[in-house]
Amino acid sequence: MMKSKSLFKFCTIGAAVFSLAACAGLQPATTQQWSPQQESADFNAEGRLAVRMDGKGSYANFDWIQQKSVRTINVNTPLGNTLGQLCQDNNGVLAVGSDGRIYEAENASELSRQLLGFSLPLQYLDVWAAGQWVAGTPHQILQDGRLQQFGWIISRQLNSDGQVRILQLEDQKLSLRLIFDYFDYTKSESAPVQCEIRNRA
């Protein structure tokens, strides 16, 4: 297990999440609607992420590209330096640290368990960001409108145009937040079939 501070920042953030202040013009979380999972759409997104655990927080920027079955999240410092990359395809999930070392697992939850000792539901972030619950698994819509699934309580806040602005996840240990500064559904004409970094693994 990598024990450096940079790995903690990358992996706990690498997904990504947050304690940043909510922005003006957002719909209240209580008005959010959840629907059954549908086929994932291609998109490009950029924003900020943060995680709080045991009263401590880490922050970074991210860019996220989803092209059919390949999902790539790059995590960068506010100055633009790369902390790492997380990529998931049909063969599993890989993470690359700032030192270039590559880690691999069957899924994102297993990879985070290997690196951190606990699981983060990174493979479901796109589903929850779209306002959907993961199909085929138990879920509950709480009285205040938040979604509960896999032990996480998930909430969304939207822009005035209905696009996701904030995605927040909470459990007993962690508070995770993704703030989207840019989100665009773009269909890929020539999507990759696997993670580019798999050739180096």
TrEMBL record:
Residues 1-24 form the signal peptide. It is found in: Cell outer membrane. One of its GO terms (biological process) is protein transport. The keyword Protein transport applies. It comes from Neisseria arctica. Its main location: membrane. This is Outer-membrane lipoprotein LolB. Monomer. InterPro entries: LolA/LolB/LppX (IPR029046), OM_lipoprot_LolB (IPR004565). GO terms for cellular component: cell outer membrane. It is a lipid-anchor. Keywords: Cell outer membrane, Chaperone, Lipoprotein, Membrane, Palmitate, Protein transport, Signal, Transport. Belongs to the LolB family.
